[in-house]
Amino acid sequence: MKHFSCLEEIVGVGGVYCDEAHLSVYGFDSTRLEKRPSYVVFPQNENQIAQILSYANAHLIPVTPRGAGSGMSGGCINEGIILAMQKYFSSIIHIDLENLCVTLQPGVINGYLNKILEPHHLFFPPDPASSAFSSVGGNIAENAGGMNAVRYGVSKNHILSMRVVLGSGEILQLGHKTYKDVAGYDLVGLMCGSEGTLGVITEMTLKLAPKPKHITSVLICFDGIKALAEASCAILASGLSPYAMEFLDSLMVAALNHKYQIYPEQAKAVLIIKLMANHLDSLERDVLELREIAARFSPLLFMRAQNQDEEERIWFGRKNASQASNFYGVKKLNEDITVPRGSVAKFLHRVEKISQKYGLTIACFGHIGDGNIHTNVMLKNESELDVGKQAVRELFAQAIEMGGTLSGEHGIGLSKSSFMPMAFGDLEMRIFREIKKVFDPNGILNPHKMGL
Ligand SMILES: Cc1cc2nc3c(=O)[nH]c(=O)nc-3n(C[C@H](O)[C@H](O)[C@H](O)COP(=O)(O)OP(=O)(O)OC[C@H]3O[C@@H](n4cnc5c(N)ncnc54)[C@H](O)[C@@H]3O)c2cc1C
User: Fold this and answer.
1) Are 346 and 233 in contact (CB under 8 A)?
2) How confident is the model over 285-301, as pLDDT tens digits?
3) Between the chain's N and C termini, which has fewer beta carbons within 10 Å?
4) The model's pTM
5) What is the distance in A from the centroid of ligand 1 to the CA of 295?
6) Domain 1-211, architecture per CATH
7) What's the pLDDT score for residue 32?
């Protein structure tokens, strides 16, 4: 109780909780992992965060920042103190129309920010499928991506500067409002994707992009993943620069057809592309070029949306892919493995082999334009969990062997922590630990994450 009173002294009465309801709710994120904290604290300003960290640092209490808790890798759950940022850190401070950037607090919801930006014809490009409820601070801390990463990149490509409180309680201003900045080490870049292990972000200035004026979507069905993957590489090499480029493998096509009958019966792989342009005539020319490129790979169907209804129909399957995969099991082990773009077909072939080896269905879909594949190892019952985990380990091993990586957007957190030594050598892991020590000498910030 001593810590409770001291924390309450910093944030005031009603700012600290240790009752069953709070500890339970804040013990979960969107994984099914649980880590029970001792205190949930709602700081109201940066100064209070600095005091909390200074106190926790002196008493060696773990502190973990939390946005909306939508993380898919157990990033925001931990023992000790959970710093709940959404309640009081949710202001948009300034929209700078001249410099095309916005300064805001980390608890602002991604989708809300984009709603506010709409009248200015601007948007914040990172668009995780969780944009309706995930916080921008969580997006930056996870280096989140989404469907339009193929054109705009991931969160780290959209941050100019930030304010951050270190493990010691010291406050740092990092970066500038300039689009170019090559002076010194890139500490903003380092902080982005650091999953709350290096500091607590209290304010950020983010780059904005003008909203595309015209958009259209195209559905292309193939008789196999090889043709789809080759067509994707050719499309990207043509310079068309799609706004989104997504795929469904044969298992996903079958699961969606079973429920909704949306694709031709012979279709074994589905490619969905969104194109954008500022002028209608250039959009039309791009669609024509896309059709010509796709034709080289003998598609079974090339359908361009003619109206909003068709636009929605084209995206329906991809948007419902995650829930449709439940056709194959009651539980899934889903990962966001990423391989070089040119290796997608080869990787999916290996996935098939792993599926046969372990006798498990592995359905895949995702962001083919980034080589970012959502692998879903489907389990029919709990007794398949151990074998499922072995299959996941082998998927990671295959991806790494092909020059790929453990995560394209969901981060490492707790769930992928044990795989870090597969992907990084001793020296790299040591450098990671040394970096953490500089920002967080006593290791109180989100400990035991990212394999550290
Ligand atoms: C249905 C669904 C769909 C999703 N789709 C996508 C997708 O398409 N692409 C994608 O990339 N992700 C996706 N995600 C994952 C998740 O939404 C993202 O990782 C998101 O960025 C997390 O934001 P959050 O506010 O929920 O963060 P939280 O889960 O609360 O926290 C995530 C991490 O950020 C850290 N953190 C939070 N706030 C701060 C801060 N102020 N300072 C420092 N560190 C902080 C936490 O400590 C933690 O490590 C999806 C999740 C769900 C449930």
Assistant:
1) no
2) 999 999 999 999 999 99
3) N
4) 0.96
5) 39
6) 2-Layer Sandwich (3.30)
7) 86
